[in-house]
Structures are given as C-alpha cells and as structure tokens.
Amino acid sequence: MNDAVVCRPVARVHSRFTEVTGMPIQSAGVPQELAQVEVFAEFAAGLRDIEGFEYLVLFTHFHRCASEKLEVMPFLDDRTHGVFATRAPARPNRLGLSIVQLQKVEGRILHIAGNDMLDGTPVLDIKPYVPRFDVRATERIGWFADRLDALPTIRADDRMA
Fold it and tell me: How far apart are the first and last CA of the chain?
C-alpha cells in the first residue's frame, strides 16, 4: 500500500514578509496586513464566483519550516504541548491554515487582508469561509483558556459560550 499523498500548489502568496522574524503568527491578530494570492493559470477557472465571499480559508504549506516535531513550546505558553494541541508550524506535513479577508479580485490575483504568511508561501487549496459551517460555540479550548489575555485580539468571549 502506498501512503503517499501528493499535493500541488494552486497559488502562491506575495507578502512583505520575507523572514519568519517579525512575521505575524495568526491572521486574526493582523486584520489590516495586506498581501496578494496569485492563483496559477491552470486553476484560474476555480476562481469563478469567489468575489461573493468576504473571507477565505487558505490551506498552505510551511515551506520554510526546517523541522517537524511532535512536541512543541508554542509562543503563548512556557511549557510544551503535543503539536496537535497547538498552531505551531513545526508539524507533520507542515500544513498551515489562514482565514483571510478578500478585498478584491483582479484576474488571477486575490487581494487579501489578515496576512500571516511569508512571501512565496505555496497555497494548496482555497475555500470560502461560511460562518454557518465554520463557526462552533465551545467552552473547551484546552490550554489556550489560560492564555486568552496574552493576545490583544483574543478575549474571554472568543470561546463563544
């Protein structure tokens, strides 16, 4: 049995961030940070009707991440956690997820706000953000519950209880 999964990029991010140092770590924390997503010509037809959505979910590859770890110390905590209990980039398959605001579409270029990606980041898929499908009310947010005050954009009511 072949367990290989092959993904090919459908787009590439053009961002002012060329190094990890100084780059935002969550799109919600930088709602005004602009970038462009250049969709490759062979996938351009997939953009039809995308301008009707305010937010998009981008699935990306952490192409500059040097390692994959199963235990990491996230920026919000001073102790390690299993990587699947964090948003850390040093993870198996190095997959990233960003929810960005679509500002406008110019041909194959998506102008976005809320950029937390490096220049050149490969985009593996683009999906529309639909609150009825994507938002869940929860009281249980693991170790993040103790760290909500660590970020100015995260509040206690972010648990949506």
Answer: 44
80 burial (CB, 10 Å; 0-12 / 13-18 / 19+) is: middle
Q: What is the pLDDT of residues 28-56, one digit of tens each?
A: 777 888 999 999 999 999 999 999 999 99
Strand partners of residue 110:
37, 105
Please state, as a whole number, how many other Cβ atoms lie within 10 Å of the Cβ of residue 12.
19
Both tokens assigned to 119: 């220049």
Contacts of 155 (CB under 8 A, 6+ apart): 148
At residue 146, the 3 state secondary structure works out as: helix
Tell me the per-residue pLDDT of 75-127, one tens digit each, with 9 for 90 and over: 777 889 898 888 788 888 889 999 999 999 999 999 999 999 999 999 999 99
Q: And the tokens for 142?
A: 């693991």
CA distance 147 to 21: 22
DSSP character at residue 134: H
How many whole angstroms separate alpha carbon 160 and alpha carbon 47? 32
